[in-house]
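At your convenience, could you comment on the folded chain following this short note?
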Amino acid sequence: MKNKIKVFRAMYDLTQEDLAREVGVTRQTILAIEKGKYDPSLELAFKIARRFEVTIEELFTFDESTPGTENENA
């Protein structure tokens, strides 16, 4: 899953640490999500989207080329 967290953090002048504190996770979790190494839970995705006052769809996009997603509907 791709995301625009880094873009929104820059718009709001937030560090990874700031965002992590506000949504109740570690800075390493935010880093991993930004790099696409970790997909957040639905609850965490909502928290991050609410923080930036956007929808989940504005913040996250599904990437069908992501490994492990090719046969989910089979």
